[in-house]
Amino acid sequence: MQGMEGPPPQVTVKSIDDYLEQLSKGVFQAGISWRVVEAKWATIKKAFHGFKVERVARMTDREIDALATDERVIRSRPKIAAIVHNAGVILALEREGGFREHLRSFDDYEALAKDLKKRFKFVGDSGVYHFLWTVKHPVPDWREWSTAHGIDWGSKTVAAERPRKKAPAKR
Description:
By secondary structure, this protein is mostly helical.
């Protein structure tokens, strides 16, 4: 197993199923150690039908509920349901003119990231960046990107809290 020093490994995408698998890895890693996700990945992949987009998009609530109690996977019903939702989104974009073409239709990384965060569930700033990097889509330099997004990878924490509205001054 690889340590997380340096960037994650990149994959050559052969089908939309590969996009779903890489996007799903980020969904499961949200708030969880990547080591836990990696340790369970083989059984997660099997439970999600090899991330075959058309099959995952058709998963029923009963199948989602069953996976949420299955020890082979990370038992987060919201994340499992998000992956089924995300498969449907990828499939719809594929049918509308191609998922890869959709990714390439954006000139600006931030505009693409905003679009993906709006369409997909359980995918935030880090998830989008990780997904696009992994599938070899052009992304900004990670140091510049993480600084711009207030992420300090060195300490593995978010550098700054979101500013809160100030309370009205007392008189």
